Each structure stands twice: as C-alpha cells, then as structure tokens.
Amino acid sequence: MAVVKTRHRQPIVQPTKPTENEYGQPIWYGATVRSAHRWNRKKEGDQSMIQAMSIPEAMRYIRAAEVGQSPQLPYDIAIKIDTINGVAPVRGAILFPKGSKKPSVVCVIADGDAAKEAREAGASIVGAEEVVAKILDGDVQFDKCLAHPDSFPLLSKVARILGPRNLMPSVKRGTVTTDLTNAIKDALGKQDYREQQGVVRLPVGQLDFTEEELETNIRLLMGQVKTKVQEINKTTKKSIKVAEIVLSSTHAPGCVIKA
C-alpha cells in the first residue's frame, strides 16, 4: 500500500500496483517490449531474443506468406550493427552473382575523349558544364555519379546537392577515375549500401530465386560487411559488431537468420 500525503489530517491510502503476475513475471507499466525482452534475457541468461534459423528455412516461411504474390517481389535484408557514436558508418558497394535490381542510371561528369568513352561504356547521362547546370537546377535523375579527374574542379559546384544524396564522386570510393569503362561497368551492376541508425538495408534477391542463389548472395554480402566492421575496429578503441541479421519480404514478417 502507498500512503499519499494530502491537506487533510487523515492520509489517503492507495493500493500499489503489483510488480509480478502469478507466474513470477514482471508487469511492465509504460515500459517497452524491448525492455521486457532485455529483462527476460538477463534473467534466463539467454543472449538472443529470437532463435535464428537457416536461410532455406527462412525462405520457406517467407514464401508461405507470399503465396499468390508476384515472384518478382524482393527479399530484403536488414543487418543490425552494435555501433557507437563517432564511428564511421559501414558502407560499400557489392556486385551480386545473381542480380535482382534493375540497372542503375549512371551519370558521368566528363568532357572530350573521356565523355566519348563514357557513352560507349553505357553511361546514360554524360557531359561537363551542361550536366552541372542541370544538377544545380535540381534535375538529379540518376542513381550513380562518376567523374573524370580533369572535370574534378566542377564537382565543388554540386557538392551541396550530391553530398546529401550519397552521389558525390570521390577518389577514395573510386568514382573519380580515368578508367571510366570499368567504373561504369561496376556502377551498372553494383548495389550501394550504407549503415543508417545502426542498420544496413538492401535487397538481396527475388522470390523466384533458388535457395542456392539467395544463400550465395547473402553470404557474399555478410563476408563483405564483416570485413568492413573489422577494418573499422582497427581504427577505434571500442569495437562494433554485427548483432542480428533479418530476412524479410514485402508482406512476410522478418526472420532472424544465421549467415
């Protein structure tokens, strides 16, 4: 019982809320489901909230939920990372053996012979001053942006537009290069990924993929992400790690997988 002080001489006695139910489990008032799971894991000594399943098993659950839907619907993966403030995000680009994403629209900022090379390699938008003028007008109708070193000074004009969209070419990422043919070939098939709020998300296949095709894509991605995590840990005092991998689709619930 809780005693509540009032202006009256006699205190008002109110019953307190129970803290446990009949099974000895805590009753959460205003708490989140996550905090309840955290209490259960701490009490039972279990480090995982949900039992992880194999990739083929997760595919069977997802396909059962997507019966009657288009076989072109994507499998999406969410890689949860235990990260810390001030650490560079996990980011990169990957070319899957079995691709599912439609080809990217590639823009190349170049002039002269470099522009001719870019057009022959399959770039959709090619130019120098005219392309920069379109970008400044807000016409950003492309997924990837490359540049030749000779046109590098023009990039400063569009940095504030391309930067927030994660399209800004840079030497470090290999998007400012003299080998435009190979760079465009990679850009047309590669998928970019970037950690946002502790999660890396991207499509890894379609419902009509076989178990071997999807598993190959996922394991290739996880190998690359874990390598990126190790590289980041070498430059920081506190280490980060991959906490959980969730496979899902448009209508199916997420399945925690082992990969």
Offer a quick outline of the entry.
Strands 9-3-10-11 form a four-stranded antiparallel sheet, covered by helices on one side. It has a three-stranded parallel sheet with strand order 6-5-7, with helices on both faces. Strands 1-2 form a two-stranded antiparallel sheet. By secondary structure, the protein is an alpha+beta fold. It has seven helices and eleven strands.
Structure notes:
This protein is of the alpha+beta class and 259 residues long. Helix content is 31%, strand content 20%. It has helices at 33-44, 55-65, 113-121, 129-136, 155-162, 180-189, 211-233; strands spanning 2-4, 12-14, 74-82, 91-94, 106-109, 125-127, 144-147, 191-194, 199-206, 241-248, 255-256. It has a four-stranded antiparallel sheet, covered by helices on one side. The protein has a three-stranded parallel sheet with strand order 6-5-7, with helices on both faces. α3 (113-121) links the parallel β5 and β6 (125-127). The longest helix is centred in the last third of the chain and has 23 residues, at 211-233. It is globular. Residues 28-37 have low confidence and may be disordered.
